[in-house]
Design a protein that fits this description.
It contains 17 helices and 14 strands. It has an eight-stranded parallel sheet with strand order 7-6-5-14-13-12-10-8. It is globular, with a radius of gyration of 27 Å. By secondary structure, the protein is of the alpha/beta class. α11 packs parallel to α12.
């Protein structure tokens, strides 16, 4: 009798154990690349064990894995913070950044990497990407085609590789997450050493078009809201061997063809051009926002494209990020922001996370004046420093960048509520809030009229611009 009871107890215990295992399947550690866990098609492990979903804990929190200023659902200036920001994880820096530089070998060896660029490894990275996005609490990601899937020996093979990885991405992202934008990598492969759309070889031009065609298709398939063109090699090293007029015409025809194909496949996303002055080329054709706006006007593309402004590119072109954002905004071209910064002591594109509160506040001034960025947003085209090698550093860097911009938004709200800065600017131009000012604005004040007024008024009395007061007011909000 006793033996029967023991047997019945053990049987029930076994059933309960199977139920628990079924409801909570065993997970593989991220660094287990054994035959059981190494197949990315089936692998269901946790890439960031010990890191839970990042939560808002407020400015007094000392927890590095928490938000101090970014509170996604908090409403500021009539919108939730997440709707002002529309933060996006950049796949290339986050999951393909190695820490290597021209002087040193890679320093980052994430535990899930197996040292290959195989399809299985690409799928493994994609799973890591979506776990990261989920734990960070954002709804967007962005990518280059060759970052998420390996290239092939032929265009057909490359397309097949991309299709396979994109199918997994579609499954993993579900209905809530989708790309802020996608793009084609037209700068890494040797075929693009003279450029893609501006190459001197027509076969390269055609290959670049085919690659953009495919990248646009998968961006559309994944529900992407924008598509970006970054012309890292669309420029020249010397004018001695360059027909600049012909190259600019070719680039315009390329961008026209992109517009036509976007409409053909029913992709309603915004096409974006990302200005940069140089690096890797000596001179890049879309040098800055003003140059790119002029190019778009010349070739009648002004209604088809907007700009993706990168702060580090702004400083490389000799401008502040605020200047570039305002130039784009005032031309009706501000579409998206690459949220990063450079180092003032270094003369190249360092792609650091933006942590300067004053710069972030000026960035958010432009965003608020623009009414937001949607369907664009902020993507973190920023990478860990070479010396930052812990997995948790991926989270800390993004948290810091998100908190910095969130703090900038809160500061803008303070400035608007206070009104002092706006009043200072309004008073500076109040002489134009007159009848003659209205005539000037309407284009009805000719030189004869203005000469008569000048003689009537005599020597102008020019007031102070109050720059130091403006800076004092701005700093008081930080």
């Amino acid at each position: 009798m006793m033996a029967g009871k023991v047997f019945l107890f053990l049987l029930c215990l076994n059933v309960v154990s199977f139920a628990v295992i079924a409801s909570n399947p065993l997970t593989c550690p991220a660094d287990d690349i054994s035959s059981k866990c190494g197949d990315s098609d089936e692998w269901q492990g946790e890439f960031f064990p010990g890191i839970t979903k990042i939560k808002y804990e407020g400015p007094l929190s000392k927890n590095p894995l928490s938000f101090k200023w970014y509170n996604a659902d908090e409403e500021i200036l009539g919108k939730k913070m997440k709707d002002w920001m529309r933060f996006s994880v950049a796949f290339w820096h986050t999951f393909r950044g190695t820490g290597g530089d021209p002087f040193g070998a890679p320093t980052k060896f994430w535990p899930w990497e197996d040292g290959t660029n195989s399809l299985a490894m690409a799928k493994r990275r994609m799973r890591a990407n979506f776990e990261f996005i989920d734990k960070l609490g954002v709804e967007f990601w962005c990518f280059h085609d060759r970052d998420i899937a390996p290239d092939g020996k032929t265009l057909e093979e490359a397309n097949a590789n991309l299709d396979e990885v994109v199918a997994l991405a579609k499954e993993l992202q579900g209905k809530k997450i989708h790309p802020l934008w996608g793009t084609a990598q037209l700068f890494h492969h040797p075929r693009y050493m003279h450029g893609g759309a501006t190459s001197s070889e027509v076969s390269v031009y055609a290959y670049a078009a085919a690659q953009v065609k495919k990248a646009m298709e998968v961006t559309h398939y994944l529900g992407g809201e924008n598509y970006v063109f970054w012309g890292g090699r669309e420029g020249y090293q010397t004018l001695l061997n360059t027909d600049m007029g012909r190259e600019l015409d070719h680039m315009a025809r390329f961008l026209e063809a992109a517009v036509a194909y976007k409409k053909k496949i029913g992709f309603n996303g915004t096409l974006l051009i990302e200005p940069k002055p140089q690096e890797p080329t000596k001179h890049q054709y879309d040098w800055d926002a003003a140059t790119t706006a002029n190019f778009l006007r010349k070739y009648d593309l002004i209604g088809e494209y907007k700009l993706n402004i990168e702060c580090n590119h702004a400083t490389l072109s000799g401008h502040s990020c605020h200047h570039e954002l305002e130039t784009a905004r005032l031309n009706g071209l501000l579409g998206n922001i690459d949220a990063n910064t450079g180092d003032p002591q270094i003369g190249w594109d360092t792609d650091q996370f933006l942590t300067d509160i004053a710069e972030a506040t000026m960035v958010m001034l432009s965003v608020v004046r623009n009414g937001g960025l949607a369907p664009g947003g902020f993507n973190f085209d920023a990478k860990l420093r070479r010396e930052s090698t812990d997995v948790e550093d991926l989270f800390i860097s993004h948290i810091s960048g998100m908190d910095t911009l969130a703090r900038g938004l809160r500061n803008v709200a303070k400035l608007i509520e206070d009104g002092s800065l706006e009043n200072l600017v309004r008073k500076r131009y109040q002489s134009f809030d007159t009848e003659i000012g209205a005539q000037i604005k309407a284009g009805k004040a000719d030189f004869e009229m203005l000469e008569k007024k000048a003689m009537e008024w005599g020597e102008p009395k020019v007031p102070s611009a109050k720059q130091e007061l403006a800076e004092m007011i701005f700093q008081s909000a930080l």
